[in-house]
Specification:
Length: 411
């Protein structure tokens, strides 16, 4: 016998970054469809995208660098983590005021949304992380966390950062160590396939549940891609570095050199908003160039994918069974590229080695290998069983009702 929780007020918190907002979109849409009132705390740049789900955008002002200025994040670990704490400190009063008198029954939060966990503690309501990327496994701190932060903790700037974090947590009545506060949620619905998770067999299943890619019908907002008549009978290659890491004219020229005028290939090249098309030079007849493309729709028709190995692109490639050449640019993309290669469905090509000859050889070898195709199809089928959007919503409703998953809403 299953139960359906009564409609509740759910508050979701995230930052203005595509890789953090997009994975949650279909989950939010599903929760609204099930009758819940969802307030989504987000900076104004993403308000329209949130409103399309039926959720109510709750606008707050962020001090974080935006997608428009990716270089502002700097190059060192401290450059990457300091802004999140500074933003949390200034955002908390804004968000507390925005929800005053309308506190939610449940808090959902992105991994970067530190104020959300503080507010859930203050309101005494459950908090659930919606993780758009890999999560910590048993032993993570000793194997990765402590070695990565040891030098930082010994530096003056690092000590000051940890002191500020400790003071902020103390001020808000939270005893937890700052690294565990950031990396160890009470409960997490993980919006990536288990196949992308390092040491998946050592992840605490009582805390983390993998639901895989949460993909819906995006045609209304993103459009679709139609294979040109000139591409009939040809293999299709998509080249896309997402929305942020697209200031890459030399790389795009290497792709044109590698695949331009190959008689059996049609290439879709997304260059984003940071590269001028004039910088590409002559564009071969078998290449179409766009600032933005409906990536998932193309991948459903593609034979290969050159990607920067962002988590969203990785799981879309896996979900469609598309062999990938991963050319990572930053942060978790290097680990994602290694995972794809270990799965046997991709090549990891460092950016410094991504010349025309290397890219061409990698793509052609992957597509010609029947074992790659078999592995990609197996992973695609495994992902289809993870539950996706509906499973994520069921898990969230189980938290609302305080029931076990078996007592959550089912179709």
């Amino acid at each position: 016998m299953t139960t359906t929780p009564k409609p509740a007020h759910i508050a979701m918190f995230s930052i203005a970054a595509a890789g953090h907002v997009n994975p949650s979109i279909e989950v939010i849409r599903e929760l609204v469809a099930r009758g819940h009132r969802v307030s989504y705390a987000i900076p104004a740049a993403y308000a329209d995208k949130i409103a399309e789900t039926g959720a109510t955008p709750v606008i707050w002002n962020s001090a974080l660098p935006t997608d428009e200025d990716p270089d502002a994040w700097g190059t060192e670990l401290i450059d990457n983590i300091e802004p999140f704490l500074a933003d949390a400190v200034q955002a908390l009063p804004q968000l507390a005021a925005a929800f005053e008198g309308d506190e939610p029954d449940l808090v959902l939060h992105d991994i970067t949304a530190y104020p959300a966990r503080v507010l859930a503690h203050r309101w005494d309501v459950p908090a659930v992380s919606l993780s758009p990327t890999l999560v910590a496994w048993t032993g993570y701190e000793e194997e990765v966390g402590e070695p990565m932060t040891a030098e930082l903790r010994a530096s003056e700037r690092g000590k000051a950062y940890y002191d500020r974090f400790r003071a902020w947590l103390d001020e808000n009545g939270i005893d937890e160590d700052s690294d565990r506060f950031v990396g160890r949620p009470r409960r997490s619905v993980v919006l990536i396939p288990r196949a992308l998770q390092p040491h998946a067999d050592r992840v605490d299943e009582a805390v983390y549940t993998f639901v895989g890619a949460c993909q819906g019908d995006r045609s209304a907002t993103q459009g679709t891609w139609t294979r040109p008549a000139a591409a009939e009978g040809k293999k299709v290659l998509l080249v896309s570095f997402g929305s942020t890491f697209t200031k890459q004219p030399a790389f795009y020229r290497a792709c044109l050199e590698a695949f331009g005028d190959l008689p059996d290939w049609h290439v879709v090249l997304q260059i984003g908003k940071f590269t001028d098309e004039a910088e590409l030079g002559a564009v071969p007849a078998n290449v179409e160039v766009h600032r933005w493309v409906p990536q998932l729709d193309i991948l459903r028709q593609a034979d290969a994918f050159i990607t920067h190995a962002g988590t969203g692109g990785c799981q879309e490639g896996l979900a469609t069974g598309t062999p990938m050449v991963a050319v990572p640019q930053a942060v978790d993309q290097f680990g994602n590229a290694d995972m794809l290669a270990a799965l046997g469905v991709a090549r990891h090509v460092p950016m410094a080695e991504a010349d025309a000859a290397t890219l061409r050889e990698a793509v052609l070898a992957l597509v010609a290998d029947p074992e790659v195709a078999a592995r990609a199809d197996r992973i695609r089928r495994e992902m289809a069983t993870e539950g996706g959007t509906r499973q994520a919503a069921d898990l969230i409703e189980a938290e609302l009702s305080g029931a076990e998953l078996s007592g959550a809403r089912t179709a």
